[in-house]
Amino acid sequence: MSPGVPARGAAAWTLGTALSLAVLAPGLVFAPGYTDPGMVRWLLGCVAAGSVAVASLLAGRLPPVRALLGGLPVPLAALVALAAWRPGQTPGAVAGAVDALLHSGARILTTTPPVPVTVDTLALPLTATWLTGAAAVAAARAARPLLALVPPVVLLVGAVVLAGPDAPPGYPAVAVLVAAGALLLGTTPGPQFGYGRMDGRAVLRSLGVAAVLAVLAAFAAPPVLDGWAPTPPDLHTAVQPPAELDQAVNPLSYLPAWAAGPARPLLEVRAERPVELRWVTLADFTGQTWLPEAGYRPTGGTVPAPDPAPPRTTSYRADLRVHDLPGPWLPAVGHPRAVQGPPVAYDPASGTIVTRSGQSAGRHYTVTGDVPAWRPGDAVNAVVPTDPEFERYRELPPGAPARIRDVAAVVAGTDSPYRQAVRLAEHLRRDYVVDVRGRGGHGYASLAAFLVMPGEGRRGRGTPDQFASAFAVLARAAGLPSRVVVGFEQGVADGPGRYQVRTGDAVAWGEVYFDRVGWVPFDVVPGSRTSTRSAAAPQGSVPSPRPGGNGAGQQPGGGRPATPAATPLSGPGAGGGSGAWLLVAGALVVPAPFVVVPLLRRRRTRRRLYRGTPAERIIGAWAEVLDGLRLAGRPVPAACTVREVAALDPDAGLRELATRVNMVGFWPAGGVDPAEAVAAADFVAGYTRALRRSRPPLRRLLWWLDPRPLLW
Fold it and tell me: I need a surface site. Which of 103, 186, 553, 568 has the fewest CB within 10 A?
């Protein structure tokens, strides 16, 4: 195709592709947060392309507002189809689509990632993508390419915020948006040229520039932003989870009665090998009792991995049928990763799950979880965190008996945090005995009567719940973040791969949080398998060596360091490679505006003055004059006619150009020939040069670096 020949088809396809890519870019940030990212990318890609196609079709026949409203039935129909294919909480295609449209944002924020692919969680991104595409088309048809990029950029920012700080970086989305922006800037002609008309070679050049900029953005962004501290806000923390628990039900209080009557069946487990189960985590101590975590959020069945990840995990799968358990909590294997069966909610802070449909009794489900194999070396030199978010795990309500702090001070000592926790666990296992007929109780009064000082010549006696509560309270008195967990041992074999878990299998243990290690379990009940050196340490127990040995990492004053532990630099050479990348990327990116802006402006000037028909070049010359006047500080009022603008300047060439502009606008055949277009280009070159020379030296120097004409 020879230069100067309009290429409607190629330009229109290129422009539509650029708009579709720009609208799709935010979806690349949305998609990784779903259980099936590939399907979400495909759906958002179809919506992006469909919105651009429908909006372009309607914009050629209707005013902008009517075109935008006229396309809305299409996404609404798509939502109804999606509700029938991937239903949400509300049954029925139409009712489900309406309900999802009203509550999609809240359900995304209150669902544990990865988010399930349903109409409830897709209504918001699909609708936002459609509206973004329609708005971008309207701006592009008005020959405002940078304005057409504003809706995708706004949607991209919203996607980053909605995804939260834990989402993967959006570098691919930025690269796609940069490429789309380059295509838009290179293929969007002026409104006077007509929509979709452009030189074929210019289309190819725009594609090449877009590819280069996309590659530069993809490879330069990671090293440049590697050390950037700001992160998007986490909107999930601002939304109240819909799952509410009955705080009156305290699973820890059931343990004394269950220990006294150990034969009652609670649940049935089918698994290839025996597994221990985690049931409820109790983190809030009131002085009278322990309360469970309350931050449960719905999940589609896939549960994110704990952070930090526990060491040496083994994946186990078990089929469970609950016969008689109080509350909504569902026993799980280790750290649950997937749950199949009833709708569930998950609390990432505690690693436990609950049923969203009432009580757990009678529920049948399959759970897959990762069981860690803890070793003493995993936390022997670790410190406890000083972050404010862990203060609640160290809090003891007012009114703590003096005996609690005395026992903690004498037993824990001033060793490293891990050895303090080991000494507390050893003290409970060595100097106490289980009394299943005891009165029980795990508040301050009961613990004061239960605890004995080392060297008093007597052994403490208590129920299983008192051991776990005493360990957690003593750990907090020593400055260690701690909590209580209730679970079940493997139960009694009842056929191949089948186990009956009874009330006597219920057990409680304590957990202590160590920085960069996570929650480490400590078995504190005398006679446990851990104290007999079982080779298979159950979930909720850890082999506990005798105090002593390596004292590295010791911290006085309860095991908490005076200052937070230093964070090791990642990567080989302590980040030297990132620094080199940063210098190279900076050398490429920092000067970019000083090169790109003048090139884009010069390219647009040449296109206006030397491309197209003589009539189009006359209109382009007038546009260059208006831009020059604005840069020179002499903006022309929008209401002025061409002759009124020419009358503001005594230059005869400007008046002649104004005459030619009116001829193009009002004469049937345009009334201009190529020679007049060439003369207009020569006049504009000299006129804008004179305007630039009239400016102060600094303004004159920055004339070609000013990006504003690209936005006018």
Answer: 568
pLDDT the model gives residue 185: 74
pLDDT of residue 483: 94
Tokens standing for 682?
């020569």
Please work out, in degrees rounded to the nearest 5, the angle formed at the alpha carbon of residue 503 by the alpha carbons of 502 and 507: 110
User: Which stretch of DSSP H or E encloses residue 432?
Assistant: strand 432-434
Among 228, 143, 263, 262, smallest CA distance to 616 is for 143
For 13, the enclosing helix (H) or strand (E) is: helix 8-24
Cα four-point dihedral sign 369, 370, 375, 376? negative
DSSP-assigned beta bridge partners for residue 282 = 292, 484
CB 292 within 8 A of CB 280: yes
Would you state the structure tokens that stand for residue 634, as one six-digit string? 């002499």
Residue 329's DSSP bridge partners are 354
Q: How many CB atoms lie under 10 A from the CB of residue 631?
A: 21
Report the share of the chain in percent with pLDDT over 70. Answer: 78
184, 22 contact by CB (below 8 A): yes
- Label residue 218 by pLDDT band (50, 70, 90): low
pLDDT for the residue 594 = 62
Which residues, 6+ apart, have CB-to-CB distance to 461 below 8 Å? 432, 433, 434, 435, 438, 450
56 backbone φψ class: left, alpha, beta (φ>0; ψ -120 to 50)? alpha
Question: Are 312 and 373 spatial neighbours (Cβ–Cβ below 8 Å)?
Answer: yes
Residue 9 pLDDT: 58
What is the C-alpha radius of gyration for the chain, rounded to an integer number of angstroms? Answer: 35
Q: What is the spatial distance between Cα 652 and Cα 23, in angstroms, rounded to a whole number?
A: 47
Report residue 299's pLDDT band, with 50, 70 and 90 as the boundaries.
confident
Element (H, E) at 345: strand 344-347
CA end-to-end span of the chain, whole Å? 31
pTM above 0.90, yes or no: no
Q: What mean pLDDT value characterizes the chain?
A: 77
Query: How far is residue 92's CA from residue 113's CA, in Å, rounded to a whole number?
Result: 25
CA distance 625 to 644: 14
- β pairing state of 335-340 and 364-371: antiparallel
Is-contact 247 292, C-beta < 8 A? yes
Burial class for 597, CB neighbours closer than 10 Å (0-12, 13-18, 19+): middle
| Residue that wins the pLDDT comparison between 370 and 663 | 370
Judged by average pLDDT, the poorest of 79-88, 134-143, 462-471 is 134-143
Question: Cα 594–600–603 angle (5° rounding)?
Answer: 135
Torsions phi, psi for 418 (to 5 deg): -65, -45
pLDDT tens-digit map of 110-149: 777 778 888 888 999 999 999 999 989 888 887 778 788 8
Tokens representing 602 are: 């010069």
Confirm if 249 and 182 have CB atoms less than 8 A apart: no
Cis geometry, peptide bond prior to residue 385 (ω within 30 degrees of 0): no
- Residue 535: pLDDT over 50: no
**What is the Cα–Cα distance from 134 to 57, expressed in whole angstroms?**
11
> What are the counts of helices (DSSP H) followed by strands (DSSP E) for the chain?
22, 18
Residues 496, 116: Cα–Cα separation, whole Å: 35
626 pLDDT exceeds 50? yes
d(CA 74, CA 53) in angstroms, rounded, equals 12
